[in-house]
């Protein structure tokens, strides 16, 4: 740890103590992600309410320490060296249903909400059963599955701005696109979302949810350590088809391999290395580019203290 980082962490610890914010030091992050690789966080906070989340972010900003928000730990690869600064594990997960409107905090589970909406006879959110993350992460990435995505149902996003003020954004202000939103490119913190749905028959919605779950179990390596889809689908094609056509199903680099069940998934051994995952992903990209002239874009995010690329 550099002297500058050490000084910032010391300021963070001091401010947290003064403001009653609980922090844990040198916390392993691998157990908090679905891929189960990566190093530790310098500091970890686990706010259980939105007010606590706002307080934690305020401490980090005042201390000049970067804060990385962690939801359910899917769709990310944490560097073997871990994440410098503060990791905020969001656990504010309250959710209410008012008529056909679902209001959910950032830490609410997408799969749990999909089941709850089905029981309540709310249609249009069945696809969320296949999103293993939280509402905050789903809004951030405009997550989707089975032809549905967050952009179709989000009516309002509550954020904490860089100025410390809370605001509500309309869908058109959120710049949703395929696996994209404005939140990937700014300092706003997603606090929650308002989701608009429609009335439907609970039995029919449950049947859709069950069908999505059954398809996911038979086509994705859920029993293996994975971070979800590695690449975004290119226009008019599927990343998994291209990787498989390149002959890479089952290909291994160190502790990581391309899933034999679905070629757009990388799975890892117990005690695996994040560096192996990145090296394998880059090999998949370059092979597909060489064979088919298609540049695959990562859907998973590589976060933390990765080495600088060599010249």
Strand and helix layout:
Elements: H1 3-19, E1 24-28, E2 40-45, H2 50-63, E3 67-70, E4 76-78, E5 83-89, E6 95-98, E7 101-105, H3 110-119, E8 122-123, H4 135-141, E9 144-145, E10 148-149, H5 150-153, E11 154-160, E12 166-169, E13 189-196, E14 198-199, H6 202-219, E15 225-226, H7 239-245, E16 252-253, E17 256-258, E18 266-268, H8 274-292, E19 301-303
Parallel strand pairs: 2-5, 3-5, 4-19
Antiparallel strand pairs: 1-2, 6-7, 7-13, 8-14, 9-10, 11-12, 11-13, 15-18, 16-17, 17-18
Helix pairs in contact: 1-2, 3-6
Describe the structure.
The protein has 311 residues and is α+β, with helices and mostly antiparallel strands. It has 3 domains: 3-89, Uridine Diphospho-n-acetylenolpyruvylglucosamine Reductase, domain 2 (2-Layer Sandwich); 95-208, Uridine Diphospho-n-acetylenolpyruvylglucosamine Reductase, domain 3, CATH 3.30.465; 222-302, Alpha-Beta Complex (Uridine Diphospho-n-acetylenolpyruvylglucosamine Reductase, domain 1), CATH 3.90.78.10. The protein contains 8 helices and 19 strands. The strands form 6 sheets. It has a 5-stranded antiparallel β-sheet with strand order 6-7-13-11-12. α1 (3-19) packs across α2 (50-63) and α3 (110-119) runs antiparallel to α6. The model has no long low-confidence stretch (mean pLDDT 96).
